[in-house]
Amino acid sequence: MKKLLCILSACLYTVSYSYAEDINLVADDKVEWYQNEQKMVAVGNAVASKKDMNIRADKMTGYYSSYRVNGQDKTGISTVHAEGNVKMHSPKADGFGDTMDYDVAAETVVLKGRPAKIKTEKETITATESITYYPNKQQAIALGEVIASNNANKIYSNKMVSYFSKNQQGNLEMDRVEIFDNVKIVSKDAVVTAEKGLYLPKESMVKLFNNVVIEQDGNILKGDMAETNLDTGVSKLLTKKSSGKRVTGVFKEKSKSNKEKKQ
User: Fold this and answer.
1) How many Cβ atoms sit within 10 Å of the Cβ of residue 4?
2) Are 176 and 165 in contact (CB under 8 A)?
3) How far apart are the first and last CA of the chain?
4) Are 8 and 142 in contact (CB under 8 A)?
5) How far apart are CA 241 and CA 53, in angstroms?
6) Peptide bond into 115 cis (omega under 30)
7) pLDDT in tens, 142-196
8) Residue 195's pLDDT is what?
9) Is residue 19 predicted with pLDDT exceeding 50?
10) What domains sit in the chain, N to C, each tagged with a CATH number?
C-alpha cells in the first residue's frame, strides 16, 4: 500500500516541465493546418511529443496562440486535445483514456475515459470521471469511482487529492494524499471503511476518520479513527474522547473442526 498512493504523480510528473520544449505533432494519415482558426489537426495514430513524454491518439488537435509561461512570452501550441484511444507515456508510467486536454499556458492536464487510467509496473489507478494534474498547485485530483490498486491492496473512494513538493534534489515528491467519500481499503486480511482518509508517505502512515469499521475473518471493530503503519503493518483503532463513545467489537466464534466435535 505504501507505493499504491504514489502513482498519481508518476505519469504526470514530467508534464509540469514539458513546456520548456516545443510540441511536435505528427500522424500516419494526415496533418492539416487551419490558418484562420490557428490550429493543427493530426489524424491517424497522431502523436504529440516532447522530451520524456509523448501522447498518442486517433485524432489530435493543437491550437496556436501567444501565451506567457514561467515569466516568458511564447507563441506556439497552447492547448492540445486528444481523442480516441489516448495513450500518454513517460519514463515513470503510462496514462490511458478516451480524451485528454493539455493546457500549456494554464499548466493543466485532464484525462477522461471509461475509466481514465494511470499504470506503472506494479500499480494502477482508475477514475470514472477524470484525473487532473495542476503543476502550478503541485496537485493531482482523481474523481468519480476511484480505485487505486496493486497486487496486495485496493483503495476505493470518490475522490483522491495528492499534494507534492520539491525535495533537496529539486525533484517533486508526494507530501500527502487526501481520500474522500465512501473510502474502502481491501486487503487479503481485512476490509476497512471510513468517511475519509489521509496518507502520509514520509511517515509511512495511513489515517482513517469518522465511522471507521474494520472487518476481518468475520470479526467487526468500530471506532472514530484508525492508524496503520505501512512499514510494520501494525494498526490502531481509536475513538475521540469528546465523542463519549468507545471502541467496539463483535468477534465471531470459530466453529470446531469435525475431529474436535467427535472427541
Assistant:
1) 23
2) no
3) 44
4) yes
5) 50
6) yes
7) 999 999 887 777 889 999 998 877 778 776 677 888 999 989 988 777 788 999 9
8) 93
9) no
10) 1-20+29-188 (2.60.450.10), 195-263 (2.60.450.10)
Q: What is the structure's pLDDT at 14?
A: 39
C-alpha cell at 198: 489521509
Helix (H) or strand (E) holding 260: helix 258-262
Q: Is the pLDDT assigned to residue 10 strictly greater than 50?
A: no
3-state secondary structure string, 135-201? CCCCEEEEEEEEEEECCCEEEEEEEEEEEEEECCCCCEEEEEEEEEEEEEEEECCCEEEEEEEEEEH
Q: How far apart (Å, rounded) are the C-alpha atoms in residues 94 and 41?
A: 23
Instruction: Work out the number of other CB atoms within 10 angstroms of the CB of residue 126.
Output: 21
- Give burial (CB, 10 Å; 0-12/13-18/19+) of 197: buried
3-state secondary structure of 252: coil
Banded pLDDT at 90 (limits 50, 70, 90): confident
pLDDT tens digits for 204-226? 788 999 988 888 778 888 888 88
How far apart are alpha carbons 115 and 151 in whole angstroms?
20
CA distances from 110 to 6, 80, 129, 154 (A): 18, 11, 10, 23
